[in-house]
Amino acid sequence: MTVLGGGSWGTTVAHLCAHNTSTTLWARDRATVESITGRRMNDRYLPGFPLHPELRATTDLEAAMRGADIVVVAVPTEAVRTTAVAIAGLFAEPGTPVVSLAKGFEEETNLRMTEVLGQELPGRPLGVLTGPNLAKEILAGLPAAAVLAMTQFAAAAALQPVFTTPTFRVFTHHDVIGCELGGAIKNVYAIAAGSVEGRRLGDNARAAIITRGVAELIELGTALGGEPLTLAGLAGLGDLMATCISPQSRNFQVGHQLGEGRTLAEVLAGMDQVAEGVKAVRAVRELARRHRVSMPIAQHVYAVCHEGRSPEWAHDSLLRGRVGHEAGPRAAGHRLTG
Question: Is the pTM here over 0.85, yes or no?
Fold first, then answer.
């Protein structure tokens, strides 16, 4: 199999799969490839964590794709389409499955990653591996779980053993839309939770942000075709919990530093990996408008990230918002109001 992308999560998944099958990781950065090949570590993103001794790495895309029976796309959302275009003519077989690890939306189109892949790689089984998965914990051998959802469910069952290890439990899933939306939308609420932590507003406030964030995520996710139980599972609630409480989460760190008073430009300038929530909130806001779903927390994250508002304003504004029915519109026939 081949994993395309040498960031922290792509490297981690390649390491896991190398326990079960011959695995090649492709990365643009030559230094990353050299550190994996020579030192069995990704010194740039995962220093100090040894990788599987049989994991191969290369900067040669054609060589990486040669003979690949599974392709995992682990590049940032902004590079998914160009990567798909680049590999379209390099597959060994017409039915080779493609699994996305990216959590977000394509800018301008607001498409999910499997939708982007489907446009550029038509006719192939497509899917997503997602869940509450913090790379460093998994590389340290701590237990974790994820879901693998494929457009062809038989493909999910066939691929499940490839991704599963004694400490990384992978469940199959049929709801690609819901699984993908959970991973994409939750990053917005990680920024919100981080800002609450950065301002030291307490665990009660953070718990409120998380639970109201779940309500917003489920409301928009179901409007877009996902299933409520999916969004309440590992791909939705589970992933949201991990990213909203862990300092390892890049999106949480963005929010935390915003809450401490830094500007978004300052925060992003100090990061060497992408915080997808900053971009995803644009799509979430537009999709919520299109589907007439009220998402006050997401709206306020957008205002802080893209309209120059302060976290103080956002928190105070949310507290002044009208209090609606807590169960949400599906249960009570009301729109979410805050």
Answer: yes
